[in-house]
Amino acid sequence: VPGGVGFTSTAEGPYSHRVVSGGDETFHVIALELLTPPPAEAALPAPRSGTAFELVMENYRGRAYRIILAPGESTGSFTRPAGTALFAVSAGRISEIPDGKPSRLWDFETADFQWFDTSETLSIKNEGPLPIELIEIEIPAGDPSSAAAVVGAWGLVSMDRHFEDGRVEPHMGEDPAGRLVYDEAGRMMVYLAGRDRAQFASSVRSAATPQELKSAFDTQISYFGTYSLDEQAGTVTHHVESAWYPNWTGAQQVRFFELEGDRLRLSTPPILVDGIETRVYLTWERLQ
């Protein structure tokens, strides 16, 4: 359907697909890939009002509106938030009249688009001789205070296991090594290991004994994938794409987070170990 809008989540991991045109005419498909973690739901602006805007999609990543204007017709004044994409479903000419600024003209061909990274109040008018159809998609950036602050590389300071009976024990020995990376595109990786890991007797990896392999497996944690922050819940979720422990691949690892300056503290939800409830606390420091 011309002007159709859809959304597919990759929260569970990436996927491959193919688009095939089954008709005799050129078929335009525009894919808008969202590479940053989703903001809190509160970051979504209030829905637009007015008959010019038909809400055609709404979810936790944003909203999409269809705009159909007859020749000479205007949307009336509305506020376009920062992080909005405008797509032309049909060719035509429009003018945009921002409040307090000069008007601007756009001559669109089918499937042309524009990106707007600043918010403004404006109206859109069809300046052409034929009706024009547009799609606007709002992609809210959210409050960047925590989402942007976790981006970077972090070095492990401490990793302790806290038991419900009050005991606190170092996890993976004294002074374990670790690196954690969050990037702006919403990807992450982590590596944790004990510093006193025993070397194999042989320099040939395939000659390792079952005991050596088990020890090497038990003294490290490593995986990579994508991440999303829920600032209201105070959690960061790691969507694991591949892990040293196969059962974690394709799963989600939720961590509570506290951010204070260049220190990031992550903690697991309660875990049962030998029938005793325990949580692991990791303190990270930003690497310069």
Give the gist of this structure.
Helix content is 5%, strand content 44%.
Q: What does it look like?
A:
By secondary structure, the chain is mostly beta strands. It folds into 2 domains: 41-142, Jelly Rolls, CATH 2.60.120.10; 145-286, Lipocalin (Beta Barrel). Helix content is 5%, strand content 44%. It contains 2 helices and 19 strands. The strands form 3 sheets. It has an 8-stranded antiparallel barrel. It has a 5-stranded antiparallel β-sheet with strand order 1-2-9-4-7, with no helix packed on it. Strands 3-8-5-6 form a 4-stranded antiparallel β-sheet, with no helix packed on it. The two termini are 51 Å apart.
Q: Please, what is the average pLDDT?
A: 88
Share of helix, binned: under 10%
As for the number of domains, it is: 2
What is the level 1 CATH name of the largest domain? Mainly Beta
Number of helices: 2
Structural topology:
Elements: E1 54-59, E2 62-69, E3 78-80, E4 84-88, E5 92-98, E6 104-108, E7 113-116, E8 120-126, E9 132-138, H1 144-147, E10 152-163, E11 168-170, E12 177-182, E13 187-193, H2 210-218, E14 220-230, E15 235-243, E16 252-260, E17 263-267, E18 271-273, E19 276-286
Antiparallel strand pairs: 1-2, 2-9, 3-8, 4-7, 4-9, 5-6, 5-8, 10-11, 10-12, 10-19, 12-13, 13-14, 14-15, 15-16, 16-17, 17-19, 18-19
